[in-house]
Design brief:
By secondary structure, the protein is an alpha+beta fold. It has 15 helices and 16 strands. Helix 5 crosses helix 6 and helix 6 runs antiparallel to helix 11. The longest helix has 21 residues.
Amino acid sequence: MSQLDRAELAQQGALRADALRAAGVELVALTFVDNSGVVRVKAVPVDRLWSAAAWGVGASNSFDFFLATDDITGGTYSRGPVGDLRLHPDLDALVPLAAQPGWAWAPVRKYDQDGEPHPQDPRALAAMAADRLAALGYNARMAFEVEWVITTPDAPDDPRSAAPGPAYGFARLSARADYLRALVSTLSAQGIEVEQIHPEYAAGQFEVSVAADDPVRAADVAVLTRETIRTVSARHGFRASFSPKFEPGGVGNGGHVHLSIWDGDRNLCAGGDGRFGLTPTAEAFAAGIFTRLPALLAIGAPSVVSYLRLEPHHWAGVFSAWGLENREAPLRLVSGPAGRRDRAANFEVKCFDLTANPYLVVAGLLFAGLAGISAEASLPEPVDVDPGTLPSATRLPTSLADAVAAFEADSVLTSAFGTELATTLMDVRRGEIDRLGALPPSELCAVVRYLH
């Protein structure tokens, strides 16, 4: 029997449609993020939102096997052109798009035609991980940092002319003040709380940080933020690139994740008796993530180009290390200012990028943290220098193939993801290696520059 209350969904869809029509909305974009990290979409007229909510919108099973290049790879669970899934919008996440008048947006959950959850639905997996944490009496708060580079049509390979000025320089901000103001205004109008925005290190690069939220909402916000940046950039005559490596030798775009674990309203990353104020639960949670960073790279740095970014001494976090405010460590404890640590303290995962599916990232981090809590794990000694200067420093995987091997060897993650999704993810990773792995860095960067 279907798990969906179709009559109730139809009623709620009709009510939401009435509100959207009153706001001038005519179409609703329904998005999901595929296993290669690309946001895919189907759209319905607002008058059909009730039907989409109750009965879903059709989508091929083959989307599970899409590469970022739009090639479709094979795999153990591939059905080729056969089969159909149904995309059901999450009506609670529905929001009008401020940069696209007449449009609204909602993320979807995937079901089969009998109304059963699709085993390869990343958003459902993220929700499952959050529910398992809640069953232990805890909750997590997360946020994704988004970095991007802008270019102009006249110089699509050179961001320097699009945003002139030095790294972190006020000159660069001033040069694009109207663009950045429009971006923040648009994000705010869509219910996204921007905490800061600034020029970044690389030429033509900016970063926006948003407020932490519950894990699934954080992934939704990551999707909506990136697509809003893309749209606002286009309206201002720019093209946005979120690639981990815009050009060889340059500093790449990261997709850092901030997360903290809470017991009700108490932040367990502060006020404890452990190192730097950590509670035992927060340390165990972080230790679970730290131990599995090699495997998690197959989720959070899932593309061939990701490993051009993961270079020593670039603040990307490429060595097996953690530390307090250490920006060269892949796991950085952010304490926050004295007097606010009970709200601000969190862990930052620095080795991830924006080719990742944020729902898979949420799921991977939470399942790893849960395993740490279950094992009452402990972190090793913290590192308070650049770990690349230590003779004993151990590198994280230096290629996508090595990360795939680490993921497949991790029984905790493969079990939590389920056999079908875990297998398909690595089939897709191998498909990308076959398609892009032999390209020289300059050609690789050019091919993937605007795919995500």
